[in-house]
Amino acid sequence: MKKRMIYKILKFIKALWWHINAGMPKANKQQILERYNICINCEYMDKEKYQCLQCGCNLSTKKIFMNKLAWADQECPIMKWNKINVTKSKRR
């Protein structure tokens, strides 16, 4: 159990590093819901804990900081959903 928790923490730190490095792009509510619906019906979804058994992510439809579904630069580890290309608007 302890090894699994450490593994999940390390995977999250790696995903967070890449997310920050990419400029922290966010998915919109529609994109989050599309990803969520794919995950909720996946064979690797623990429906009691709302947690992916492949990447360890906790699933939520909320657009919050600690939600991998809301991070546009992330992708499913078994390729059920891909990164979302987000164009940055130029500031003047």
Helix and strand topology:
Elements: H1 2-21, H2 29-40, E1 45-46, E2 51-52
Antiparallel strand pairs: 1-2
Summary tags:
single chain, 92 residues, mainly alpha, 2 helices
What does this molecule look like?
- This protein has 92 residues and is mainly alpha-helical.
- It contains two helices and two strands.
- A two-stranded antiparallel sheet has the order 1-2.
- The chain is globular and about 40 Å long.
| Overall number of strands | 2
SS-based structural class?
A: mainly alpha
Helix content: 25-40%
Principal-axes geometry comes out as globular
SSE order? HHEE
- Percent range for β-strand residues: under 5%
| Average of the residue pLDDT scores | 85
- Report the radius of gyration as a whole number of Å: 14 Å
How many angstroms does the end-to-end distance come to? 51 Å
Unreliable runs, pLDDT <50, ≥5 residues? none
User: Largest beta sheet: what is the strand line-up?
Assistant: 1-2
How many helical stretches? 2
The biggest sheet amounts to: 2 strands, antiparallel
